[in-house]
Structure formats: structure tokens, C-alpha cells
Amino acid sequence: MQKHINIKILLAGIILMICITACKRSFLDVTNPNRQTEATFWNSESDVMGALASAYSPLRTPLRSYWGGFTGFQNINSLGDDILTIPGDEPPTWQIASFINDPVNSDAASTFGRMYNSIYRANQVIANTPKAGMDDAKKTQCIAEAKFLRGLAYFVLASNYGDVPLRLEPALTTDQQYIPSSPVSEVWKAVENDFSDAAAVLPAARPAAEAGRAGSGAALAFLGKAYLYQGKYDLAETTLAKLTTAPYSYGLLSDFDDNFTAKNELNQEDVFRWVYGDFGNMYGPWTEEAANSPMHNYIAQFVGPVGGGGWFKYVPSAFVVSEFLKEPRPEGSDTKFDKRTYTSFFWKRSEFGEADVTWYGGMDFESLWATCRTKVERFYPIYNYDTVTHGRFLIRKFTNAWENIANADNYWGPKPSTANYVIMRYAEVLLNLAEAQIKNNNLDAALSNINLIRRRAGLPDKTASDLPDATAVMNELMHQKVLELFFEQNRWNDLKRWYTPEQLKQLFIINKKQGAENLQAKHYVFPIPTSEINTNNKLKQNPLWQ
């Protein structure tokens, strides 16, 4: 019930901000709403709460955002070597997956725009909340929450686009609207400031009435991740370590699968998430920020096998399957493989000495594979998708197979998913912390955190004898990140941090990543959209793309 109440508040805020916002010529072309509404808006707590809710919306729309199933989720995952994008569907995604995208790519432009939509709305909250008639402590907290959202949007822009325009207050004049890009170092500094300010003010835990909103733990987790992305390992370790002690009580769920279902939400592993629920027109996901827009999670529609009602747009790579099968569990365990394997994939288990199971109300693997065969065949003869070395595998993670009902992945089926999309799990915090600890030569602490992840997966601890130096511990950390965070929009940014473009190109060739031969240094960032450069004559293309 509380989840539905918060969604209604969000939707009301979206509609409110749409009503007070003039049409924009571009993503960065903004109009000060106070010119039209100063006498009637920003007067009350409800005004501020509605505006704050609207700042969440461009980040968590279920289809078109960095985490949206149709754009960002597809695109960022497609860049890694752990999945393959099936040819013949959306050209913008295929271009990105194959490293043949350009500045007119509509998906990259859409994500760029959604981030600035959120920044625009967050800036309005930060600038205008002091005017409202409400408790000063609540004002301070609302401003801090808006800074977290602005920091999150700039985090996405800095890590994926590099140099971008940096706007930290509402634009009141044309000169303020049309500004050049700032160096990425300055964008990262703004990210650090926003997350730091948010962490200092937001509560460690939210009351039930505020479930789903950002707390200080989320701010610290993303602040630590920002430091890690920049190679500031001392700061990353210090920041992320705070989340392992009071006042925080995060922990790993005993069942890894519960991170990706609606069965056990807002749990101890959930550091930050986009909240979804059964609200709005479930069959109208393409209409966003309208009075009856749905608040469901549609990722399963894109991921799921055809037999489950999905559009089946990706398959796991042979590389990632080999990583999951690399270390069988000890003799006598209740499963043969790492427990995460069973959440991540469908496969014919009898081919590996285990009993077969069914999904989607009784479909066995052969039935599922048969429904997908036509799309799998699109790979050939251009790309030789390997189903021989380890056999046939399909992606289960983020599907609705856990419901075990027919057609569960189809939003025209029984009901679209209401599962939250957790974008920062405590497991990732531990792995990011371990990476920083390795870089700081704090190997015992790093190994301890890695072993927490291994134990939950049903694997025995590694010891200092097993991993005697930093290189060995780092290799295990990299392996665990592949398994734990598979298909969670992390692989690409991890690889960019660990390898030079030429090194990564060679790794991709070895791992048979589609488009590997096309990878260049410029692909480490998306270009500034052409539509923005055409509108803003002060804006120049990223140097790597000039």
C-alpha cells in the first residue's frame, strides 16, 4: 500500500511540473517557471514535494532513460562482453552494441535529454524551496534530496559523455541557457559536491511513509562509486566503508534471486532503487509523464524469451557462461554451480548432470529454446554465436520467470512486473569497496569483502594462500563482478576503468564481442547529440569525436 501511495505522489508531481514548465527547444534550453507561477507556486510544502517528485521522474521512467528498458538498459548492457545483442531489432541499439554509433544516435540523445530534464527540475527545487512555507529542517532535507538527484544525473553524464554543460542553477537569461561544455573533471567535482551535501543531510533510514526515497546511504554509495571511477581510491575506500557500520544496517539477502523479484522489496541489500507498482494504464508504457502513465517495470518484456512473452533481444555470451561455470560448488552442495547461475540463466540442466526444471507455468528448456530459435539464427552467418562450447543458455535475470505463470514477460499478458529496479545493491558496495582496498594494498580487507559475496553464492572462502598478491586478488574481484553484477549496467564502465582502449579491443576480440574490431578510444564516451550542438552555438563536440 505504501509503495502505491508514493507512486501517486510521484505522478502528481510529474503532472504539476509539466504544467508549470514551458516547451523547450532543446534538452538544455530551459524556462524559469517562476516568471509565470511565482504568485501561486513554491508557497507550500505540497508544492515542494510535488516538484521534488518530478525530479525523480526522468531518471526512473520505465522505457526511455538511463535505466529505461528501451534505451539505457539496452545500450549500456550491450557495450559489454557478457551479452550479445540480437541483430534486426532497434538500429540505434545495434549501432551502439557494434561501436558504429554517431552523434545522431537517437538512444544516446534520449538519455542525454532525460538527464538534463532531471537536472532542470532539481535546480528548480534547490533554488525555490527556501521560499516555501514549511519547516526549515524539511526544506534543508528536500534541497539535499534534489542535490542527490542532480548528482546522479551528472554522474551518468560524466561517466558516459565526458565534457558536458554544467548548470547548477536555473537559467534566467539566454546567456545562461546556452553555455559551453565544462571539462569532465569539473563535472565530477559537482557530482562529488552534490553527493557529499546529500549524505550530510539525508537520513540513514526512511520512515515507512517515505519508503523508496533516497537516503544518505544512497548518496555515500554513489559518491564512493564516483571516487572509484576517477581513481581516487583512498576517498573511495573511506566513503564506502561507512556503509558497513552503524548507523547503516545493510546486508546481503540470503536468496540472491530476491534482488530481482517483487517478493522481498525494500530489503537490507537495497541501497537505492526505482520504485514501480500497479498504477496507471499497464498497457500504455510508451506514454510517459501523463495522467495515466504506467508505473510498472517493463524490462522483462525486452529480456524474456519468446516463450515467456518477451521480445528476446539478448543472449548471454559464451565468455560469461564460461565464467559462471568456471568454479563448480564443493561436492555435496545442493546445486552443482554457483547459486547465481540459476538466477542468471535458463539452460537444460540435465545436460550438466542436474534435474531439469520448468518455467512459465510448465515450459521446459527445449520448449523455450524452440520459441527463440528463429531470432538466434539472425546471428548467422555474420556472427558465429557459440552454442557448442558450453551449450545453449538464455538470460533469466530480470525476467518474470520467478512468477511461474504463462506469458509472464508480456505486458499484454497477465500483468506487467511491479518489481522495483534496484540500481545500487549492497553487493556492489562491497565489491567497489574491495576494489578500492586492493588499489590501496589493503588486501586482507578486500579479500574479506570478496568472501562475503562468495559465501552467499555458495562458494568457499578464498585465503591469502589462494590469492597471495594484489594481482591475484584483483583477478578474483574482476571475476566476482562479472558474476554478481551480470546484466546490471556495470560491466562496460568497469572495463573502461581496467583497460586502455587498445587492450579492451583485444580482450573483446578474444571474448568474441560483436563489433570488437570497431572499438576506438572515442567509444569510451558517447558524443554530444547533434541536435544539441545545432541549437547551442557555444557547445562543441567532445574532442574524441571531433
Q: Major sheet: order of its strands?
A: 1-3
Cα distance spanning the termini: 52 Å
Number of helices: 21
DSSP E strands, number: 6
Q: Strand portion, in percent? A: under 5%
Would you kindly provide a written description of the structure presented here, covering whatever features stand out?
The protein is mainly α and 546 residues long. It contains 21 helices and six strands. It has helices at 2-20, 34-37, 45-60, 72-78, 91-97, 106-128, 136-161, 174-177, 184-201, 216-229, 233-241, 299-303, 318-325, 340-344, 365-376, 426-439, 443-456, 470-484, 491-498, 501-510, 530-535; strands spanning 83-85, 270-274, 314-316, 345-347, 393-395, 421-425. It has a two-stranded antiparallel sheet. It is globular. The chain starts with a helix and ends in an 11-residue tail after the last helix. Residues 18-31 have low confidence and may be disordered.
